[in-house]
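Regression report. Comparing outputs from two consecutive submissions.

Submission 1:
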Amino acid sequence: MLVAGAGVTGRSVLAALAPLGVRPTLCDDDPAALQRHADAGIATTSPSAAARHVGDYALVVTSPGFRPTAPVLVAAAEAGVPIWGDVELAWRLDSCGRYGPARRWLVVTGTNGKTTTTSMLHAMLTTAGLNARLCGNIGNPLLDALAEPPTCWPWNCPVSSCTGRRRCDLRPASC
């Protein structure tokens, strides 16, 4: 597995995969970030090297900071390697029961107003007495929140990463 991005999302993905025994390779343009992760025992590579060897990976999990036109993602798509964002990984891990009973997600998508709408929804739910949780683009990263005990319902997630070449099977349960 290849994790594209060593920032907040990439670190969250690495932390979620570690207890599963998955030892991914991390790619990023920042040599200092790669060195820090290499010092921690994580396999690292540059995006250009990852693009040349993308067929060696069964899956690419990418951070929102990697544009869909990034050469490593284009190479993965051309090679037929699935490309997921952290949202897709979180959804699948939660749906399969990896962290206990699946949580109920309230996902806000769109071009403009996701943060405002999500914050308003969160205020409405908490005012109604629900132990709602902000995560995703605001609040904790989704995968970090998954690792915590499922004491809250529902999750409020502004999501913008189900776009471009990334696969996204996140679908509404009902309306």
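Submission 2:
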Amino acid sequence: MESRSCPMRAHRECGERAASCAGVVPGVLTLLGDTCYSISYDYFGSRGAMSSGKSVSPVFIRDVRAVLMLIMTFMLVVVGCQESSAVDEKVSLHSSDVLSSIGQATAEIAEAVRPAVVNISTRRTVKIRSGVNPFFDDPFFRRFFGDEFRAPRERKTASLGSGVIVDAAGFILTANHVIQGADEIRVTLSDKREFKGKIIGTDAMTDIGVIKIDAENLSTIKWGDSDRLRVGETVLAIGSPYGLSQTVTMGIVSAVGRANVGIADYEDFIQTDAAINPGNSGGALVNVKGELIGINTAIFSTSGGYQGIGFAIPTNMAKSVMNSLMSKGKVVRGWLGVTIQNLTPELARQFELKEEKGVLVGDVIEGGPAEKAGLRRGDIITEFAGRKIEEPNQLRNMVANTEPGQSIVMKIIRENRADILKVTISEVPADTQRQRAGEFDNLLNGVSVQDLTAELSIRLNLPKKLRGVIVTDVDPGSPAADSIMKGDVIQEVNRRTVSSAAEYEQVISTIGSDKDILLLVYRGGASIYITLSIQ
């Protein structure tokens, strides 16, 4: 039994120590020690066994081979662990260097861009009529009690947003809804200087606005090409969420060409997961080169705050609108004179098309550019000005951004044959810009509403008991454009409760074009009365 203290037993102890030091699974090394011990006991248990001429059996040889294999395995594991440790150390150092470089690069971009991003605060005057009993507004009553109980005629509202300095002369690009209807605009720069802002022009159809300040030594931002933007690119959003100026957040481009979101008439949004919150509107979305590639405009949220889905107007669209506002004082859009629709799989089969590429022409307006170019109902437009067409909104935006008078080459498919047409784009007719359906019948025409469902109330964080219809759009030419805002909840029309879009339509259909309208509207956490008056 003295063999239990033989030198081979040290392998087990050594193996366990090695496992503890190297972090190797102890079971492998324990097996090595146990095997060594077993052979030691069976074949070297007697000190005189070998010297007495006892032969070594094949079993012994096989066991020795097993030991040698285990020893070699042990050595490979130890060497491997040492190499792994060295690799881990290198990876750790390399990762640290990479992350440090990324952090420094991000900081440099933010440092370069932030001075060109401003905080915009506005004040609006909303004409209202209090819900207090009209008796208190009677001259006889005021004679004895003064104006203490008199219904207020105006209410001041304030809002915050952001903007981007795009010209050293003081021109600032922002979102239309940040400055729409503002009586007073204050612009605060990154160096804390404050200036009064003047509206140069606005465009509700794209939610773009331009203001100007009289200031010197202004930092401007470089323009980027939003058409070259790719999904997955890193972007930074800079603005004043909740009034916290010069806030920088980072994310990626989640999608491009987002349409049918319900934010504006012309939609081609960049979608990003960079944190965008109320107050970020009008701020900058920049790429890793520090170039402006979008104007932050809206978020998709069920809580009113950031939920990972934000939208920005691409700079190529914003720049075109801005240039038109600055040079002409209005937005001049191109017009093709067609109605178009999606090319569904069913329609593609009916037209015997091999691919579902392009948009289908549903109608051609008489005397319009398309008719003059020879375009017909049933044609498939597949390419416009060298760019492939995938869906209607894409073509609509491209036509709108084309300068009137410019000749464009279009590729079409007609009766399964490819063809090329050359069309000269014209300006959108004035009557089309005003309202497709004709003149306004009353002061609320041009205001679009929908039912205020329970789901929508939760999404917009509205009171559970609130009843009415929610305003989804206001035509810029509508008489109500200066008083009604998208997102307002209309509770009453001329003191008649409206609980659905159908009730709303029924009520306003009875109001003549020469009649004033009294509305009860829920806005900003409170119900207020608004009067629409014939001017």
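Expected: both submissions complete independently.
Actual: both completed, but the second showed a warning that disappeared on reload.
Relevant detail on submission 2: The domain at 113-330 is CATH 2.40.10.120 (Thrombin, subunit H).
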